[in-house]
Amino acid sequence: MRESADRAPDDVRPPDVDAEAARFWDELYGQRDQIWSGRPNPHLVDVAGPLPAGTALDLGCGEGADAIWLAGRGWRVTAVDISATALDRAAARADADGVAALIDFQRHDLIRTFPDGAFDLVSAQFLQSPLDFPREDVLRAAARAVAPGGRLLVVEHGEMPPWSRHDHSHVRFPTPEETLAGLDLDADRWDIERVDGVQRPATGPDGQHAALLDNVVLVRRR
Prior knowledge:
Layout: H1 19-30, H2 42-48, E1 55-59, H3 65-72, E2 76-81, H4 84-96, E3 103-107, E4 119-125, H5 135-144, E5 146-157, H6 176-183, E6 190-203, E7 209-221
Parallel strand pairs: 1-2, 1-4, 2-3, 4-5
Antiparallel strand pairs: 5-7, 6-7
């Protein structure tokens, strides 16, 4: 982010992106030419499919499948991620698919900076991290970015996949009800449209098949 020209030379501020977090995600995306399936997340398709096109904010856009799917249906999308590698990959795919003009890719460390604007749909798909990450604070900022009449869709892992090679015995995933409570929404200004857990078929890296639990929270600002 460009610094103000009138800043004093000794005026030091924290960088907009945490170097350790950026390195972690860039290294993850650098492992292969494509990490994710390239298909939009199914819960986003279920929610946004019937909606008229408007403005959308895609938090943690990764390689851009959700943003590209939305743009292909006429949405104007702000798509953000901390990984420059992921953003470059997403922008290249958007250009190849002919929807680049409808997507504004922005690099944000959501702990430190958040996109400007109000949106008809704010989507937080699996916005979870093995690093220190104030998830509730970020999701509350996501709720504040919803325009009147717009929706916030939060989809989270409800459990670890059985093929995970790491010890996650110490990890506790929030329930959808806990995620909703953490948003701290004013009941007079929001309608709760969906709070539940859904089983989703998935395939592991070595071809394993399992049903994974996704937690889904969908709320609408009045």
